[in-house]
Amino acid sequence: MDESAAAPAEAEAEASSAKPERPGPPPGPEIIAVADAGDIILDVTFETSKETLRKSSKATAYAAKRPGGAPQPTLQTKVRVAYRVSQAALKKHSKYFNNLLSNSSFREAGLIAEAHKKLADKQIKPAEAGAADLPWITITDDDEATKAAGREHAFEDMLRIMHQKPPKTARVALQDAATIAILADRFDCITLVARSILNGVRWPVTTTKPYTDESGRHTDAEEILRQKVLVSLLLGNGMKLHQAARELITRGSRLWSEFQYRDESLTAAWWHLPDGMEDKTEELQYRRQCVLNTIASAQRHFLDLYCSKERQCKLGYDSSVACDSFQLGQMVKFLTSKNLLYLVDYTPASLERVPDAATVNIDELLATLKQCPNYQVDKNHTNCGLRTRLEPIVDYIRAMLSASGTSIAHADWKKRRSEVSWTMLRDGQGTGDLHEDSRTFVFTRAVANDQRLRYENAMYTDRLSKSLFTASSWDWTPEA
């Protein structure tokens, strides 16, 4: 190499090495002063999966166009934020923090005592100390339960509420409400948070949105519906819980399928509803099964009657076997054409004809049964068909389905679960009014003409609906 060319390079290297390096402060997280006079720092790392980030990026782009929207999440796999807070406020409103910061068995309690002792030796009050001199408590939060990015904003609102400050977002979308409710439930301050944000939750309508699109792909309808159940359950909104739980029972869930494997990617809290809804027992799923079994029992009842040797045509001298045979054929034709009955034989392949009923809409099912025509073998046989006998039964089932006891009442579920739970009755653990000898439901004329059934939530309808749907057998024509 030419020495004249190498000399400037060597001089430049010596000059750069001679420059003193400025030792700046070590890189650290952003510090948010929830309490200006806070005496501890919560150093929180929020870990978010790439799958959640991809899903959130679309929602973020849409929300950015709306004026006055919530703070947009930082789309990173790891976000570290430090919050300056008052440990007294945390201990007062959160059992989790009270145990973490006070129990000597945890390292955090020792760190706080040691740091505050050093400040006391310097005659510095913790409220007046710099953030670097305060004790730093490390917390890690992942997105397994929330499936949401930007949880640092929800966490900050939760801390603000514990410090008697209003949350930054007054009106929150359901997804954001689910996030803060799950966080508050984890840190055991759900009662306080519920009082602050409950009236600001925006509840979307899901009744008109299908579970699947025209291509058969899952929409977000069930996910939103489940979020409504979870948020109303955690925040204690009895009316919303009653409505959302009833809708979920009526519309079903893909998780309740007997033919599909559980999707392991559905780890969010609303896919595993807590407090006995789905985690410890299958209360909601079992209630749906009870309703479906009751409706199907009416179909089976009349099919068995018309297949039996007992004459169903009641026209005296004009009664005929031909009428019964005609009605049986028309009944089978109607039920199979409406996908309410499937004919299978002894070959395993025929079972493939039976579809998955996990998401069959019960309201639509009852409406279809009401479409049964009034078939007649001739002009004299006016009341021999299925419609005349089935219509009052469908009306009764629909009335019982609208009774409040079919859904979940928040207060009753919390205070007297053993009395209102259907699964406990199934397992023989309940303390309700039903006994083994009364598990057969008898549809008498008095039951069919009960005037109380004209009004939703009428007295005793809860007990009537429970006795109907949890029966072990049904007699739909005791006075025929």
UniProtKB/TrEMBL annotation:
Residues 1-18 have a biased composition (Low complexity). Residues 1-32 are annotated as: Disordered. This is Hydroxyproline-rich glycoprotein. It comes from the Eukaryota. It comes from Trichoderma ghanense.
